[in-house]
Amino acid sequence: MIEVKDFRKSYGDYTAVDSISFDVKHGEIFGLLGPNGAGKTSTLECLEGLRAPNGGSLRVAGLDPSSEFSKLKNKIGVQLQSAGLPESITPDEAMKFFCAYHSVDPRFDLLERLGLVEKRNAQFYELSTGQQRRLALALAIAHNPPVLFLDEPTAGLDVATRVELHGMMRELQAGGTTIVLATHDMAEAEQMSDRVAILLKSKIVATGTPIEITATGAGLTKISARTQSSSLTASGVIFPAVTQSISKDEYNIYYSSDIGSTVSAIIAHIKTEGDTLIDLRVERPSLEDRFLEITNSGDVQ
Amino acid sequence: MNAFIHHFIFEFRTGIRNKQLLLMNYLFPLGFYLMMGFIMAEINPLFREDIIPAMVVFGILAATLLGIPDPLVNARENGIFRSYKINGIPSISILVIPALTTILHLLLVAVIITVTAPLLFDAPSPLNWLNYALIFFSTAIACAGLSVLVGVVSPSSRMTVLWSQLVFVPSMLLGGLMLPYNMLPDIAGKFAQLLPATQAMNAFNGLAMGKEAAFPPWGSVIMLLVSGVLAFGLAIYLFSWDSRNTARRGHPLLALLVLLPYALGIFLFS
């Protein structure tokens, strides 16, 4: 659905994006991650047709965003990071206004679905940040675009609204919409994205599923165990593959490079000591851990 | 057409909802009209003869030069035009529709002034209503076009104020609104002919109010219409969707071409 090959974008002497390539499949949620200034926004803006690339090729829904923009506008929906609406426009007017330019009937049902019915006649500046973002999303999907670009869609939103928006993204994906999600929220990227690309210093430094990316790191697995007695807290207890251990809130926490051997040894030790296991938690390294590892080291995969 | 209507309705409502635009479209022109009518007409009874065209031209200058450019600059700087571009809203609509809605607001103000001035201040009504309407629209188009052009080429709100005042202040002083054109020194008169307000007052005097024009009044109407169309054309040509996009089709100084019809008019119609 989206093809990026050797894409370059520069502003004068500054290279914002340096020969990156990736593709996004139909119906996929693709996360575009990276610190500020990594080139995410430039990439998105070129894919959306707002800017022309300096090299390489871009295809979105089979169209070149630069030369076929007039056809592209009905194929893409964009929720910009800044709301991009006049202060005095009401949700009702915005829906009529944008749908009219896409030659589709206004989707007032989306305003209802996104909890904006009571504010449909309020001016844009009177809406809360969450309401403004929900309106931007409603407008972005009102013409049923096959490709949706979301730039920090849940930044500044409360938990309930985030869950609602994530649910809507899943629904759109189930309906065949391809979503490109640019976000700083690693938990969101890990939870929502089928695949992600991490941009660093104008280049893609890692791409794959969140699990693939986290698996390539040197991150240690966190194993937390709580027992009825204190068999784990006795001094001199050492488990294989553990590099660090601490005690916190009645839990013994181990950082292990080999989950299997460590967990087996912990269970065996508890059994040997005649103790009882109350709780055991295993947490693999998160995408955020891996992201920080990559951005700190500049590691290219 | 549906898109145009929805866009037009929204922009028209903005002209009333937005406090700054409400001030420039209605409160400032009508407040100034009442103040000038009650004070100036007492000080200088001859002002009664000019109060209708002068205050209509003032209303046009205020609503266009002080009202149109800043929202354009703000919309560009706040990414609203980027959002419009993504949704396929053409630049011509972005530039022309706010100008048209401003002209509609101005029409209401002009009607209020034209109807109430004879009743409140014993001002003479226009003698030729068709020419009066034609000159009103010509002036509104010229000033709206110029204002849109200022909004397009100004890099910031601060520069917008500077450019707008460069036209607004001389128009007030030399445009024949406060002082008759004939009282100006020759050099000042030539400079004044570069201003839409001067041409508008000359045309109103010669073609609608039954007074003597200082120079050919139809020439003034032609200059207003040509400069208005030229200004819109230049604005569309020089338009950029956002300030970070440095690719512009022409240098902003091309905007000065908008003065060309007036400059030529000085030689052709004087």
Keywords for this entry:
heterodimer; A: 301 residues; alpha/beta; Rossmann fold; Alpha-Beta Plaits; 2 domains; six-stranded mixed sheet; four-stranded antiparallel sheet; 10 helices; 13 strands; globular; B: 270 residues; mainly alpha; 75% helix
Structural summary, described in words:
The complex is a heterodimer of chains A (301) and B (270). Chain A is an alpha/beta fold. Chain A is built from ten helices and 13 strands. Chain A has two domains: 208 residues, P-loop containing nucleotide triphosphate hydrolases (Rossmann fold); 64 residues, Alpha-Beta Plaits (2-Layer Sandwich), CATH 3.30.70. In chain A, the strands form three sheets. Chain A has a six-stranded mixed beta sheet with strand order 5-6-7-3-8-9, with helices on both faces. In chain A, strands 11-12-10-13 form a four-stranded antiparallel beta sheet, covered by helices on one side. Chain A has a three-stranded antiparallel beta sheet with strand order 2-1-4, with helices on one face. In chain A, a hairpin with a 2-residue loop joins strand 1 and strand 2. The longest helix of chain A has 16 residues. The two termini of chain A are 24 Å apart. The model of chain A has no long low-confidence stretch (mean pLDDT 86). With 270 residues, chain B is mainly α. Chain B has one domain.
In short:
By secondary structure, chain A is α/β, with parallel strands linked by helices. Helix content of chain A is 32%, strand content 28%. The mean pLDDT of chain B is 90.
